[in-house]
Write a structure and sequence with these properties.
34% helix, Double Stranded RNA Binding Domain, 3 domains, five-stranded mixed sheet, D-Maltodextrin-Binding Protein, domain 2, alpha/beta, disordered C terminus, 15 strands
């Protein structure tokens, strides 16, 4: 490949830069002669730090300016946290790659006192404890289990959120485990919250790469970074999201995973045969979803299973089942309180 400069559009937060730098390093491993630069772009969502994002617009708040840079040719590709990416794209742009997922679950983080966690786990939170999170998805699920909790808005980058916790503004905070781990703060995680307690956000833990649809060079360049298993799961989750016409800041959650049906049959096979057998091995995709009221007093859940080839149609089926069980009424109430989606999305 001839020497060529590629510009990555990214937000300027530490996590966004980490993700963009990771994509850069992966591209350089595959193409040592490539020159890769970052174009750090401040999005509307980054500028608004004192208002809950659900009240000021859609998930496009975190990607709009970056997409405009792509369309103007000021960036060749954009690196996003998948949970921030709207389900619809401007003409000329598309989601070309979804990279391998980190831990998709939420993390419970308590203050450290005398080198130990002050609170050992979520179940140990004292009555009336103050928990910081910016997500209605998280708060509704936690309140459904512990209605006594006081949920407070938590905005800012990871350093800011941890500082507020350590200053005593919260008894605990809830963050995405993936971001905490990627930035080297895994030791601050008190407990990983299992999906049975807090079902993850759509796309949580996955990195997406957006680019111009007609840019053959860039599409070919980034294709090796696509992780098929993650892509199948995230696209199923996003199909559910699109049908529900919601976003991460609406109390909606969906989590898909692939389950091998014959793992035991592989264990005794020679290593060179395992890859071949795995390709032939029948797999199922399992998707769990929920819609909850803001107060957490109503939680609608559903579960679907099928083949990976039907992933997106299964995501739609999941959404339709949730709607039939009462999710539509909950979402109508949420949207009726001036927490309305922009282009079908609400900010995370």
């Amino acid at each position: 490949m001839a020497v060529k400069k590629v510009i990555i559009g990214t937000r300027g937060s530490k996590l966004a830069i980490w993700q963009a730098e990771w994509v850069k390093s992966e591209l350089l491993k595959l193409n040592p002669n490539l020159t890769v630069e970052l174009n750090k772009i401040k999005t509307t969502g980054d500028k608004i730090l004192d208002v809950p994002l659900a009240k000021v617009g859609g998930k496009g708040l975190f990607v709009k300016e970056i997409e405009e840079a792509l369309l103007r040719g000021e960036a060749d590709l954009a690196v996003h946290s998948m949970k921030d990416v709207p389900t619809d794209f401007p003409n000329g742009l598309h989601l070309a790659v979804i990279c391998k997922r980190e831990d998709p679950r939420d993390a419970f983080i308590a203050p450290i006192q005398n080198s130990k966690f002050k609170i050992q786990n979520f179940k140990s939170l004292p009555k009336g404890a103050t928990v910081g999170t910016s997500s209605l998805r998280r708060s509704c699920q936690l309140l459904s289990i512990r209605p006594d909790l006081k949920i407070e808005q938590l905005r800012g980058n990871l350093d800011t959120r941890l500082r507020k916790l350590d200053e005593g503004q919260f008894d605990a905070i809830i963050l995405a485990a993936a971001g905490v781990k990627r930035l080297g703060w895994a030791n601050r995680i008190t407990e990983i919250i299992e999906p049975e307690i807090s079902l993850p956000a759509i796309g949580q833990g996955a990195i997406g790469i957006e680019c111009r649809t007609d840019d053959e060079f860039i599409n070919k360049l980034i294709f090796p970074l696509n992780h098929p298993e993650t892509s199948v799961c995230v696209r199923a989750e996003r199909a559910c999201l699109k049908k529900l016409e919601g976003g991460c800041q609406v109390p909606i959650a969906a989590h898909a995973r692939l389950i091998s049906n014959q793992l035991s049959a592989l264990s005794s096979q020679p290593s060179e045969k395992k890859a071949e057998r795995r390709k032939l091995n029948a797999e199922s995709i399992v998707i769990d979803g929920l819609v909850g009221s803001v107060s957490g007093d109503r939680i609608i859940k559903s579960h679907v299973e099928g083949t990976p080839q039907d992933a997106e149609s299964l995501g739609l089926k999941l959404a339709e089942d949730l709607l039939s069980k009462g999710a539509k009424e909950i979402l109508d109430e949420v949207y009726g309180k001036d927490i309305r989606p922009v282009n079908g999305e609400i900010a995370s």
